Amino acid sequence: ESVLVRGVALEKNQAKISIDGVPDYPGVAAEIFEPLSKENINVDLIVQGAPDREGKSEITFTVDREETEKVIKIMAKVKEKLGAGKVGCDKGVAKVSIVGVGMRTHPGVAARMFKALSREKINIELISTSEILISCLVREEEGEKAVQALHKEFELEKMQ
Amino acid sequence: ESVLVRGVALEKNQAKISIDGVPDYPGVAAEIFEPLSKENINVDLIVQGAPDREGKSEITFTVDREETEKVIKIMAKVKEKLGAGKVGCDKGVAKVSIVGVGMRTHPGVAARMFKALSREKINIELISTSEILISCLVREEEGEKAVQALHKEFELEKMQ
Ligand SMILES: C[C@@H](O)[C@H](N)C(=O)O
Ligand SMILES: C[C@@H](O)[C@H](N)C(=O)O
After folding, report:
1. Test the A interface: residue of B24, B25, B43 with most A CBs within 10 Å
2. What 8-state DSSP symbol labels residue A66?
3. How far apart are CA B48 and CA A157, in angstroms?
4. What is the pLDDT of residues B13-44, one digit of tens each?
5. A45 in reach of chain B (CB within 8 A)
6. B82 lines ligand 2 (CB under 6 A)
7. How far apart are CA A22 and CA A30, in angstroms?
8. Which terminus, N or C, of chain B has the lesser number of Cβ atoms within 10 Å?
9. Which is nearest to A133 in space by CA: A93, A102, A92, A157?
10. A23 CA distance to ligand 1 centroid (A)?
11. How far, in Å, are A158, B31, B73, B97 from residue B35 at the CA level?
């Protein structure tokens, strides 16, 4: 199928939460996200990459900014329970996403997105992708500039 | 909107590639993915979480298994160019995904997926999510068991 980049989306009302030094065995991810779901916290992105050199994992996720205090309290207990490392919280993020179809069979799309952001000297702080959505977190103050750079790169009108 | 988990998908023909000790400034992600796209490598998942304690980043991505050797060659040059840490390659992964809509406004879906896998003692090695797709990498030999656990949890018929 041909690739179609349909639009660029910007979200500025999120906070990025991370927990590191997390033990890497079955049940740990559930231990983190079940308490959040019990409190009806909406979680948007979740990323977990490769473990660190000690075999510990790190999970980063985004929530609505107004939930931050509630999330921090929950995560403090989770960290205790898991014997995890440190919980980080960053409210200064914006999520910039490219929405498309068939992006997996078109290797260049993610590369073009990353290149377009780098031309504006925008640092990419988190990446989470799927075939139809490539999302990056950038500094909130760079959000509008990021969107414009992507509109230009993909020759798009502003997504409504 | 109400959440609708539509199906579970399993992919067994992938390899997980990671690069750590990556400098965290604009242009680096492009440096990694442009050479891959030049060689027409299809990249599926890309995850980048929070930087490590030295401020270095780590990026993990998946490619079709038959591209592995080609990718490793490209990544060796990239690592050199970036002064990065180490390139890892793992062909023993399966990708298990939940496909749905409105999953973000239903905090429990990811938690239920993680819990269902943990009940089968399946370790989650990577997570990448969006509103309509939650993907986890597990050991390839656990792939079928993971799919069955998720069908059971979400009361689904096998996705065609
Ligand atoms: C770190 C976390 O994902 C763990 N591996 C689990 O399976 O729950
Ligand atoms: C690590 C990588 O994502 C880097 N921060 C960049 O912007 O390209």
Report:
1. B43
2. G
3. 28
4. 999 999 999 999 999 999 999 999 999 999 99
5. yes
6. no
7. 12
8. C
9. A102
10. 7
11. 29, 7, 11, 28
| Burial environment of residue B107 by CB neighbours within 10 A (0 to 12, 13 to 18, 19 or more) | buried
Residue-wise pLDDT tens digits, B66-107? 999 999 999 999 999 999 999 999 999 999 999 988 777 677
Among candidates B50, B60, B106 on the partner chain, residue whose Cβ is nearest the Cβ of A18: B50
In this prediction, residue B88 carries a pLDDT of 96
Distance in angstroms (rounded) separating the CA atoms of residues A110 and A130: 10
- Rounded Cα distance, A74 and A35, in Å: 7
Secondary structure of residue A64 in the 3-state scheme? strand
Q: Say which amino acid occupies A1.
A: E
Which amino acid, B22? Answer: V
**Token pair for B147:** 């799919």
The answer to whether the CB atoms of A43 and B108 lie below 8 A apart is no
How many A×B Cβ pairs under 8 Å? 176
